[in-house]
Each structure stands twice: as C-alpha cells, then as structure tokens.
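Subject: Protein entry, chain in single-letter code together with its fold tokens

Category: Structural biology, sequence-to-fold work with a learned token vocabulary.

Notation: Tokens come from a learned vocabulary of local backbone shapes, not from coordinates.

Start of record: The labelled sequence and token lines come straight after this line.
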Amino acid sequence: MIRRTFLAATTALAFAAPAFAGGHSMDIVDTAKEAGSFETLLAAATAAGLVDTLKGEGPLTVFAPTDAAFAALPEGTVEDLLKPENKDQLTAILTYHVVAGKVMSTDLSDDMMAKTVEGSEITIDLDNGVMVNDASVVTADIEASNGVIHVIDKVIMPGM
C-alpha cells in the first residue's frame, strides 16, 4: 500500500513539473539549469569542482535541494560554504546528496538506507510522504541522460 501511494504521488508530481519537459536527452547539470530553480546548487557544484562529475557518464541519483531550500539555511551559510577555504566542507555536503547508480522511485522502500558518494548513508522514509532524512521529496524521477534527479525541499547535512 505504501509503495502504491508513493508511486501515485510521484507520478502526479512528475507531471506537475513542466520545467523539466526537456526529457532525458540532457545530463543532470543541464536538466537542473533548464528548470531554473537550482541556481544555488549549480553555483555550489561549480565552487566545489563537481560540475564535470555531474555531467559525466554516471549513472547518478541526485537529491537536489531547490534555491528555496538553500535560502532556508541560517543567514550567511551559503556564502561561507562558497568560499574557497570551505571547499572540502561544501564538497562533503553536496556529495551527501548523491547516490551512485540510477535510483528511481520504484526502487525505494520504507526505512531504506542508501550510501552516498560522500560515504555516509541517507535514510528513505515512506511513512509521511517521501522523506530523505528530514527533507521531503517534492518532485521525483526527473530523468537525465546520466541519471535521475529527485527534488527535495531542504539541504541535508552529513552527520546530522
């Protein structure tokens, strides 16, 4: 029942995202650029030197926080993370949002643990909508040529 509810919710969300109408002929970075609500994520990926990885062959699964999710962080957090001296911390945070392989919503199960590229695990919870740690998935299964994007409403932090 949970899986059916999740599938219905993610199918409805996927159709509610016309900004991603480009389909999966574009890579993860270009798909995010076209959407227009991931400028902070893309700036952070550039600062961390991760753009080439996200444009690479993959496949990768990215739990992508929106600009609003980054804006909700404490004042000055994003600016501090974008400083060159904080590149390692920024890289750890961004790679915590990435899982190797293409993980579609149909591959998820309740209380599932997934190892991130950063090295820690994230928890998938299907009891109250679809949660990745304490972030809600607001749009799922946005396919790109080198993986999939699931849009989340919060920046998740390793070790928290």
